[in-house]
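Practice problem 4.
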């Protein structure tokens, strides 16, 4: 099975993943019917591990919930070298060039990766290392904050796989990278 790097993330209409203060409370502005996961669990069934940045990792640690992941989480950071004791068997710090990090993760048997976090996603896109994007748009304009996308050296073409609507308000688009 070839390696695959996937993004599953929500954005505002204007393309932000967090508001100007780094807040994400706006993600809950639309009530989701009981039992509706918007394809998340099916997505996670096809994932071997997660790669997220330090900021995303620390945000998840700050949630008042049990650790939400059953798969290993690789925390991409040049400054974090020690994972809190409570999460040492669940999360692992990694650093270095993305291709080296991926090589190390793949060698551990994790080929299908969920890439999460603004800077991390932008870095993977910059290196043309994203194979799939699943983007859910929340009907709000934040007017600033942490953008999902940043500047790229080159254009990246994707093909549209499908669109779904949830709760009559959330638009989820699925794209696959087109490689020449």
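Answer key:
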């Amino acid at each position: 099975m070839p390696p695959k790097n996937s993004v599953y993330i929500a954005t505002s209409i204007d393309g932000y993943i967090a508001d100007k203060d780094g807040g994400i409370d706006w993600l809950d502005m639309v009530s989701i019917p009981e039992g509706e996961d918007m394809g998340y669990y099916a997505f996670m069934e096809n994932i071997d591990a997660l790669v997220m940045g330090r900021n995303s990792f620390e945000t998840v640690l700050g949630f008042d919930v049990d650790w939400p992941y059953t798969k290993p989480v690789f925390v991409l950071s040049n400054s974090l070298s020690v994972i809190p004791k409570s999460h040492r068997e669940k999360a692992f710090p990694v650093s270095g060039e993305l291709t080296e990090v991926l090589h190390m993760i793949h060698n551990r048997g994790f080929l299908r990766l969920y890439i999460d976090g603004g800077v991390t996603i932008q870095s993977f896109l910059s290196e043309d290392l994203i194979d799939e994007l699943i983007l859910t748009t929340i009907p709000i304009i934040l007017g600033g904050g942490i953008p999902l996308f940043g500047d790229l050296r080159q254009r990246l073409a994707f093909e549209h796989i499908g669109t779904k609507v949830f709760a009559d308000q959330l638009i989820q688009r699925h794209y696959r990278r087109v490689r020449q």
